[in-house]
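Today's session is about reading a structure prediction critically. Students often jump straight to the picture, but the first step is always the sequence itself: look for stretches that repeat, for charged clusters, for runs of hydrophobic residues. Only then move on to the predicted structure, which in these notes is written as discrete structure tokens rather than atom positions. Here is the chain we will use throughout the hour.
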Amino acid sequence: MSQNKEKREELESQAAAIQEQLTKTVTEYKKVGNQMLIAGGILAGGYLLYSVFSGSKKKGSFVGDAIKSYALALALSYAKDLLLDYLASLEQETETAVVVEESTVNP
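Below is the predicted structure for this chain, in token form.
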């Protein structure tokens, strides 16, 4: 019986270690994914700005220009909000990491 208990404890510790590694990996992938999403949004916004302002020099309609301006303002406002939220989450993660690190250094 003790041999079975030892084997079970060994397997449970291995499972816990693997689960911890997977959790760390998933967390890292989420961070990279968020960064790539933000970078893609910035590139898309830059392309949108480029396409809006580098269009042909012919006169557009007043309504069309107003719609473009309004859509551009909405897109930039949304991108700004996403960036601010992302920066706030990074700041919170950094503060949490510093608190955890301080508590392990100075118990």
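Discussion point for the tutorial: Helices lie at 2-53, 62-105.
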